[in-house]
Amino acid sequence: MNVMNVTAVVEPDLALEADLARLIVTALSLETAAEEIAPEAPLFGTGLGLDSIDALELALAVSKAYGVQLRSDDERNHRIFASLRSLAAHIAGHRTR
User: Fold this and answer.
1) In whole angstroms, what is the distance from residue 31 CA to residue 50 CA?
2) In terms of C-beta density within 10 A (0-12 exposed, 13-18 middle, 19 or more buried), how is residue 71 classed?
3) Secondary structure of residue 85 in the 3-state scheme
4) Which end of the chain is more exposed for a tag (fewer CB within 10 A), N or C?
């Protein structure tokens, strides 16, 4: 019997991405407009330019807004915080609010 490994394609939640972009701009007092944050662009380094302090503030804001706990010792953080889209996908799968 031949079993195929099929990976489900999950459509991005554009409304959540837009809401999250606004949260990022507000929580971090960024001068960038929320609409200017590209969904696939890196949040840290050469992308949006966030740093580790921003990550802590963002994790707190996400927790308050969506009920998602983001821990500093989570080995998946690099992937979770890779972009607006990856953070929104993580929130969509774990939110309590």
Assistant:
1) 12
2) exposed
3) helix
4) N
C-alpha span between 95 and 88 (Å, rounded):
10
For 5, the token pair is 């490994």
Cα angle, residue 18 at apex, residues 16 and 21 outer, rounded to 5°: 105
Angle at 48 between CA 44 and CA 54, to 5 degrees: 55
Residue 6 has pLDDT above 70, yes or no: no
Q: How much of the chain, in percent, has pLDDT values that exceed 90?
A: 72
Global model pTM greater than 0.90: no
Span 20-31, mean pLDDT?
A: 97
Q: Are 83 and 40 in contact (CB under 8 A)?
A: yes
Region for 49 from its dihedrals, namely left if φ exceeds 0, alpha if ψ lies in -120 to 50, beta otherwise: left
